[in-house]
Specification:
The chain is an alpha+beta fold. Helices cover 24% and strands 34% of the residues. The chain has seven helices and 15 strands. The strands form four sheets. Strands 8-9-10-11-12-13-14-15 form an eight-stranded antiparallel beta barrel. Strand 11 and strand 12 form a beta hairpin. Helix 6 packs across helix 7. The chain is flat and about 75 Å long.
Length: 327
């Protein structure tokens, strides 16, 4: 019952629980309900708006919420009990690949206005005859991503139940790197990878701004997109997507957004190297992003290396010009 003890849900946050077969990739939906709570201000507002008749014929909003939570908890426990019974009947096969199973169900995460928290209970085995086996981690990740391409739209992913003894072919440290790199390639962030689930937060998520645009630099140009949110006054997090031929590169960043009226300045650093696990990534952790423009409408600026460098082809500074605007 780790989920019940550690999972914190926000007001009306949807919760979907899936049973996934890592051998056949079959997925069964076991639970799908919104967390039936209101914020304190919403409860007070509802109370103020109640007529005398409402007070006589219906329970107080807080009492009603308490009853709704009891029903939600009972249904959740029932669903988890059924999953435990079902899991006891699982028969392993030649394949045991939870990442492939997630990719197979990728359309579930295609709602662009949503922010996904994905929590996976798995021993993190990676057994798959369709993925090219290699002791070279970067080569293995490339084979895995090519076989099971997916897009998770910036989701936070927590993996728990990890077992060191579950996969003798790939040690635990290597598997964590594989999970992290595969998810980064698929536009997701590995938040935790452990035997137990860290305590989750129910802090409300700030709205996400999405702008379309272009990039230019290093004798190349193409489409680019930026996605960012401001979870606090001192922090801005997001992703820049670069479209390179048929491929897309997802670069996560962290920084700050300072505004005076509608005019804003975004100062941030790349938080990972992309593509991951390669000797010569296009973008490196620490690369600097500086943009300015109208809040949530348009930005332009640059992405350049932390230390001054030049592109391999000549003396041109390693710098990309970025332009974004509201579609």
């Amino acid at each position: 019952m780790t989920l019940i003890n550690r999972l914190e849900l926000g007001a009306r946050e949807p919760l979907t629980i899936l049973a996934v077969n890592p051998n056949t990739f079959e997925t069964d939906q076991a639970f799908d309900l919104c967390y039936p709570t209101l914020t304190k201000s919403e409860i007070e507002s509802t109370r103020i708006g109640r007529s005398q008749w409402d007070k006589l014929t219906s329970p107080d909003p807080e009492d009603q919420q308490r009853e709704n939570l009891q029903t939600f908890d009972a249904r959740l426990r029932n669903a988890l009990d059924k999953l435990l019974v079902s899991a006891g009947k699982f028969q392993s096969g030649k394949r045991k690949n939870i990442l492939g199973a997630l990719a197979f169900d990728k359309n579930r995460f295609a709602e662009r206005s949503a922010f996904y928290r994905i929590i996976v209970y798995t021993d993190a085995s990676l057994l798959d005859p369709d993925v090219e086996s290699s002791s070279d981690t970067a080569k293995y990740i490339n084979s895995l991503a090519s076989k099971y391409p997916a897009t998770f739209y910036g989701a936070d992913v927590s993996i728990f139940g990890v077992s060191d003894a579950s996969d003798p072919q790939i040690n635990l440290q290597a598997r964590e790197k594989i999970f992290e790199a595969y998810l980064l390639t698929s536009w997701a962030h590995l938040k935790s990878f452990s035997s137990s689930l860290p305590a989750q937060s129910n802090d409300p998520y700030s709205s996400i701004t999405r702008l379309e645009g272009t990039f230019e630099g290093g004798n190349s140009q193409g489409l680019a997109r930026i996605f960012y949110s401001t979870p606090s006054k001192s922090q801005t997090v997001g992703w820049i997507t670069f479209v390179v031929g048929r491929n897309q590169l997802y670069l996560p960043f962290e920084g700050s957004l300072e505004c005076e009226g509608e005019q804003c300045k975004l100062s941030a650093n790349a938080s990972e190297s992309v593509p991951p696990m390669t000797q010569s990534p296009y973008f490196r952790k620490g690369d600097r992003i500086n943009l300015h423009g109208k809040k949530d409408i348009s930005f332009e600026g640059s992405l350049k290396t932390e230390a001054k460098e030049v592109f391999r082809e000549g003396n041109q500074e390693a710098k990309y010009t970025l332009r974004f605007q509201k579609p």
